[in-house]
Write a structure and sequence with these properties.
heterodimer; A: alpha/beta; B: alpha+beta; four-stranded antiparallel sheet; three-stranded antiparallel sheet; 3 helices; rod-shaped
């Protein structure tokens, strides 16, 4: 008993026990927190490394696209060899990508597709292989000029005047400008640019009182607060080359893409050439070329509905008239092209003079004219009589071009009337390109003119100062001071416009949306031109990612 | 007798001493307890907020992964059932004229259906007129405000327009209180935009006496594909 009393007195008080209990409780809490923190840190770390690997794979994709662009010369593409790049980053963590082109498709000389596979890894650079492996697969394609709604090298017009982008216009497709762009914005108005702008140099922003400087809110310019859709910088882009232009001539006369390094053929007799000869009533057979015209020509065009499924052209070359009927339903779907030549000689070819054939052989939609072109209107129901009172329509896919390169660009295309697609719905293949150094609008009568086409003007290397005065779409009745044709008229460009310098179409009063003289230009982008451009229309040396997956 | 002397040398506290000591100890313990309660409260709040932020980050990462793959359908075989043009964003079926922000967004992307071998992005993919044409699907992200989840469904392109069944359905984020997507430069007529502004409000759930907290996460997603120019 005495011993027990002694022991209890030796351990009197509760302070030590309390402290120990408190320490234990704190240790439990700290342990739980530490465990939770470690577990979350590991999760975040693993997720971070995985994301780093995915970013590396994306970087590899960008690198390969860049190499494809560097290896592109004209329509020739050198496919880069597979390569691996390691990035040491901050010296602690590293990432690496291995990238290769796993497949190439070449449906035509100027339209290429590549499948790129890029594998990214990340982790610590020391002590073994990087992991995990993340893979990005991408399908890339040469970018056609027609992926832009508006593409101009210079912002000077053909009279040397300043051209403004204003809120009276709206660009619902992408815009490229060599710059400097002059943007006159009016705060509170709808945005001028709806799908972004690429421009080489900073634009000049002014309000209607010509007060300069980028506004605090760019909503009326590009729909963003900070003009973030105005992509400024990068290398200036170029216009199509003579190789691109002569590709259309080569396909129209020879039916292949191999004669685009020489001047277009110049047969001694003016007229329409099919399969390298003027149709004479006996020389039909399979159509192997497009349509080639020697000499100045007036064109009437008329598409007829899907049930009839035909396209009529009348080509007046001097005193000779060629009636062409393209029947898409004939020959069990193969189609036929019938030509009635002077002297009422009928020649029938199997195959249609429309579209861009796969593999580059067979009839195609290139219509090349070694001379001047006038688009004069439609036809009557028979397709045999030209009608200057109605607009031209096209059913099918065509590129109408004239020579446009440094040594030969005097010929032009003149538009007397509207020219539109018969069917411009998403599923339709009715698309048109007009290609000349100068395309002239010659209409002072109609209140509005529609041009539903990819309009290509100007060539690579053409000078960009006002004195050049060409490489443009312009109103023939304009002078430096004003334009003919009265006020309030509209030119509807339902497609894409590529220009060297900006052509004058009309005049406007600052702050007013309708034009004082000539045409106000209204642009509506045709999205089909980006993915299914007209036959043999040119492509840039850029590539666009059109499909993407990651693993 | 030496034992007795020791007892006298180690005599106990008086009752007053003991009560005084216990009073001081009680005071110290109550102050400590108050500190513990405050600290635990902060810890709980931080923990639930961290849970909410973590949930938000994870949800945003998954939403980004889906939305940045938006592409336009280039396969001509799909066009007859498509919207006005080659849409890359088909918004929601109930409101094609998407004003945004909305909590039900559907994008077009290349197929991930394992049963569709020829439609995958691969060297052996199908071609039409020598042009590679992968198959496309519609990936829809839809907010379930009852279960507070973001649900992803994948449906073949044609079936989506025809009201067909999804090929896969999965929950990509839980504990989400709000999910809003606004299109940047949206063109309703063409179904195109340049990217999305995404806002997610996530919840750190109440548990073990903790109060629920919310965290807001925002991000802008621009498309990797050249979608705006198609």
């Amino acid at each position: 008993m005495n011993k027990l009393i002694e022991l209890s007195r030796n351990k009197r008080g509760v302070a030590l026990i309390t402290v120990i209990l408190m320490v234990v409780v704190m240790l439990i809490l700290a342990g739980a927190l530490l465990d939770s923190t470690i577990s979350e840190a590991q999760g975040i770390g693993a997720n971070g490394v995985s994301n780093q690997a995915l970013n590396a794979a994306y970087a590899g994709l960008d690198d390969m696209v860049l190499k494809l662009e560097e290896n592109t010369s004209g329509t020739n593409v050198g496919v880069p060899n597979p390569f691996t790049t390691t990035m040491n980053g901050d010296g602690v963590y590293a990432s690496q990508y291995s990238v290769s082109v796993t497949k190439q498709w070449s449906p035509s000389a100027n339209f290429q597709y590549f499948l790129i596979e890029s594998k990214g890894t990340a982790g610590l650079p020391l002590g073994g292989a990087l992991e995990p492996v993340r893979t990005v697969d991408a399908l890339v394609r040469t970018q056609p000029f027609s992926s832009y709604e508006m593409y101009s090298i210079s912002e000077v017009n053909n009279f040397g005047g300043t051209v403004y982008y204003t809120n009276a216009q709206h660009y619902d497709g992408a815009v490229y400008s060599g710059g400097p762009m002059n943007v006159m914005y009016k705060t509170g108005d709808a945005a001028i640019f709806g799908a972004g702008v690429d421009t080489a140099v900073a634009p000049n922003y002014v309000d209607p009182s010509f007060k300069g400087g980028q506004p605090a809110d760019c909503s009326s310019i590009d729909g963003t607060q900070a003009c973030s859709q105005m992509n400024i910088g990068g290398s200036p882009k170029a216009l199509p080359t003579f190789l691109d232009n002569l590709l259309v001539a080569s396909e129209a006369y020879y039916g292949d893409a191999t004669h685009n390094t020489q001047n277009p053929p110049s047969p001694g007799v003016n007229g329409l050439y099919v399969n390298q000869a003027i149709p004479n009533g006996t020389n039909g057979g399979p159509l192997t070329t497009g349509l080639y015209i020697q000499g100045d020509v007036t064109i009437y065009a008329q598409g007829v509905n899907a049930a009839t499924n035909k396209q009529f052209y009348i080509f007046q070359v001097g005193g000779s008239t060629y009636d062409v009927a393209i029947d898409f339903n004939a020959n069990g779907g193969i189609g036929s092209t019938t030509v009635i030549s002077p002297g009422n000689k009928t020649t029938i070819y199997s195959g249609v003079a429309s579209g861009q054939p796969s593999g580059g052989t067979g009839g195609n939609g290139s219509i090349f004219v070694n001379g001047n072109v006038t688009i004069a209107g439609g036809t009557d129901a028979t397709g045999l009589i030209g009608k200057t009172t109605i607009g031209a329509t096209v059913h099918g896919s065509y590129t109408i071009g004239v020579p446009d390169y440094i040594t030969n660009h005097a010929d032009s295309i003149t538009l007397n009337k509207s020219i539109t697609d018969l069917d411009s719905s998403a599923s339709s293949n009715d698309v048109l390109a007009l290609w000349a150094n100068d395309i002239k609008l010659n209409n002072n009568g109609d209140p509005s003119v529609d041009v539903d086409a990819l309009i290509l003007t100007g060539y690579y290397g053409e000078c960009t100062i006002a004195q050049c005065n060409d490489g443009t779409l312009y109103n023939k009745s304009c002078t430096a001071a004003s334009c003919g044709g009265g006020a309030g008229r509209t030119l509807n460009i339902l497609g894409s416009l590529v220009e060297n310098i900006r052509g004058k179409l009309g005049t406007a009063v600052v702050g007013q949306s309708s034009c004082a003289t000539g045409f106000c230009r209204q642009m509506t982008y045709d999205q089909r031109l980006g993915s299914r451009p007209p036959p043999f229309s040119p492509t840039t040396n850029k590539y666009q990612i059109i499909a993407l997956q990651y693993k | 007798m030496p034992t007795f002397r020791m007892r006298n040398g180690r005599r106990g506290f008086s009752l007053v001493e003991l009560m005084f000591a216990m009073g001081i100890l009680g005071l110290v313990l109550s102050l400590t307890l108050a500190e513990f309660i405050t600290a635990f409260g902060h810890f709980s709040f931080a923990q639930t907020h961290m849970d909410a932020e973590m949930a938000g980050r994870v949800a945003m990462a998954k939403v980004n992964d889906v939305l940045q793959l938006a592409s336009s359908d280039h396969n001509p075989a799909d066009v007859p059932v498509a919207c006005a043009t080659h849409c890359m964003v088909v918004a929601n079926k109930a409101d094609p004229n998407w004003p945004g922000p909305i909590s039900d967004v559907a994008i077009v992307a290349t197929t991930t259906d394992p049963a569709d071998n020829s439609g995958q992005l691969a060297p052996g993919m199908q071609t039409i007129a020598q042009v590679p044409e992968p198959d496309y699907q519609v990936v829809e992200l839809k907010f379930d405000n009852v279960l507070q989840e973001i649900v992803e469904t994948r449906t073949s392109y044609k079936q989506w327009f025809l009201g067909g069944a999804a090929t896969s359905t999965s929950v990509i984020a839980r504990n989400v209180q709000q999910f809003q997507v606004t299109a940047l430069n949206w063109d309703a007529g063409k179904g195109f935009c340049s990217g999305f502004q995404v806002n997610i409000q996530s919840v750190g759930p109440a548990q073990g006496g903790r109060q629920a907290t919310v965290a807001n996460t925002s991000n802008t997603v621009y498309f990797t594909t050249y979608a705006g120019f198609q």
